Amino acid sequence: MAKLTPLTAGLGMMVIALVIYDGFGIWFLCRDYSTVQECHASNRDAHAIWPTNLWTYVLFSVITVSFASLIIIAAPLGRSVEAGRKTVKRNASPRDTEEALGRRTKFGLIPSRPDWLFLWIGSILICIGLVFAIAGFWGYWELFMARPWCSSNKAAFSELDLWHFGRLSFFLQIVASILLFMWGIAYWSAPCLFELRDLMSVEEDQI
Question: Which of 91, 145, 176, 188 could be disulfide-bonded to 141 (CB atoms 3.0-4.6 Å)?
Answer without folding.
Answer: 145
